[in-house]
Amino acid sequence: MAAHQTASMEIVLLILRLILFGVFAVSGISKLLDPEGSSKALREFGTPEEFTKFFAYALPFAELVFAVCLLFTSMSWVGAVGTLILLLSFTGGMIWQIAHGRAPDCHCFGQIHSEPVGKESLIRNFVFVVLAIVLIAAGRNNQGIELSNTSSGMLEMLLILSLVVLGIVLLGYLIKLTDQQNEIVRRLGLLEFASGDIDPVERNSAGDPSDGLPIGAPLPDFSIRDLDGRMVTFDHLLGGGKPFLFLFVGPQCAPCESLMPEIKEWESALSHKLKFVFVSHGEIEANKVKFANRSRTVLVEAKRDFAGSVNAKWTPTALFVDSDGNIASHIAGGDIALRRLVEQIKTRDLNEEFLYFLGLNGHKRPNIGEAVPEFSVTDINGYKIDGKDFVGRKTLVAFSSPTCGHCVKLMGQIRDWESRRKPSDPELIIFTDGDADEERKLGLNSSIVVDKDYKTAAKLGMRGVPSAVLINEEGIIATEAAIGPENIWSLIGGR
């Protein structure tokens, strides 16, 4: 029985050695394949610049030496001690960074796998620490089964090692080739934009502009702390006579970091005509490390409520807002869309009336800036309505259908809005393809026009049902069609 337990323990110790060998061999080789990434990670962890290049090679070399030691029982105990020292050093550095509100990229496995330090990386390191301690506690002369007891065992071990190293090398180069391919695709996208020859492309993952707030709607107000802990609202930022470029970023967003050199150039080139506002999330201290700049406005949300309200689901994302505080672009999500938006901004007069920028997805140009066309219709109560009725007052023109469930919901919201309508609220006209008698049963005070086949509604910018546009006091269509009840109410700042 004792002999059986001893044999089982030797197998367990061998397995622990092989696990730690695999972890440190992969870690060491992957770091050697990406010395620049290793140097960058070391700088973020506080290593002085003059030592980063040395440690970028010395650290993975040490990992490989200790990994090889773990393969031989005569050196395994030394390897376990070495891996424990490295693990404790790594873990101590991670805890220090987290305690100071920072989350640098650990670059733990080079290009194969890298992530910002956090609970997961600490737990992973703790598991490996336990494995190393078990090997150390077993004693120098009790490190399990020797792999190279026979010549065939030695050959098998060397073959396994060769295959592991070859696999890691091939994987590293595959990752590099993938990155190069992505860069080529990105540059081709920019060349397409520069040539003006961009075919409409459906990008479902990017969402539709109808998911976000429509162009022309007022930007929702917010109350968010800046890097100094002061509460900032949108009213505080308005009044400077400049439009805004809101950049939604994150302290752990790698694409955001790669874009920062370009963003700095944009700030320098456009600061005289545009105000940059960074909206991040997480801990203030972590954002100070990433985005602090004396001339830069950086706001830090706790839960990304404001970002969610404008549909900035990802980072980096940009949104252009005009000097009156109205949304003037579709959401630009990702580096290609963001660069395209900035290139368009560079070429336009930002004081232009009804200035706006469309997204990348080939969306139909809205009727913004167009005068209401000539028409004449009669509402369900016999009142005549024509284009002249839109002059001298703001008017929200909604498009509905009784067969649309969302439209039914909208009609109930309109009834509630009418009951507490303020004098400053716009007029409301509803175009529908329903039956006049059925529409009267809704009991609404607003004008309802039965418009079969939506012949008149189409001239006013209708984009499906329910949707709506806002027409200003001059009889000019001031917004794109807002789709869905929530977006419709956003045109007038809520209900």
Any overview of this molecule?
There is one protein chain. The chain is built from 15 helices and 14 strands. Mean pLDDT is 82; it is low at 185-210. The protein folds into 3 domains: 2-176, no CATH class; 209-347, Glutaredoxin, CATH 3.40.30.10; 376-490, Glutaredoxin, CATH 3.40.30. The strands form 3 sheets. The protein has a 7-stranded mixed sheet with strand order 2-1-5-4-3-6-7. Helix 4 (73-99) runs antiparallel to helix 5. It has 495 residues and is of the alpha/beta class. It is 47% helix and 12% strand. Strand 3 (244-248), helix 8 and strand 4 (275-281) form a beta-alpha-beta unit.
Observed structural traits:
495 residues, alpha/beta, Glutaredoxin, 3 domains, seven-stranded mixed β-sheet, five-stranded mixed β-sheet, 15 helices
Fold blueprint:
Blueprint: H1 2-32, H2 35-44, H3 49-69, H4 73-99, H5 119-138, H6 151-195, E1 223-226, E2 231-233, H7 234-237, E3 244-248, H8 254-270, E4 275-281, H9 284-291, E5 297-301, H10 305-309, E6 317-321, E7 332-333, H11 335-347, E8 376-378, E9 384-386, E10 395-400, H12 405-419, E11 427-432, H13 436-440, E12 447-450, H14 455-459, E13 467-471, E14 482-483, H15 485-490
Helix pairs in contact: 1-3, 1-5, 1-6, 2-3, 3-4, 4-5
Number of domains: 3
The run of helices and strands is: HHHHHHEEHEHEHEHEEHEEEHEHEHEEH
Q: Classify the secondary structure makeup into a structural class.
A: alpha/beta
Strand portion: 5-15%
Shape: elongated
Q: Number of helical segments?
A: 15
- The tally of beta strands, per DSSP, is 14
Question: Which bin fits the share of residues in helices?
Answer: 40-55%
Enumerate the spans where pLDDT stays under 50 for 5 or more consecutive residues. 185-210
Largest sheet strand order? 2-1-5-4-3-6-7
Distance between the amino and carboxyl termini: 79 Å
- Main β-sheet, in a few words? 7 strands, mixed
Average pLDDT value? Answer: 82
Rg, Cα atoms, Å: 31 Å
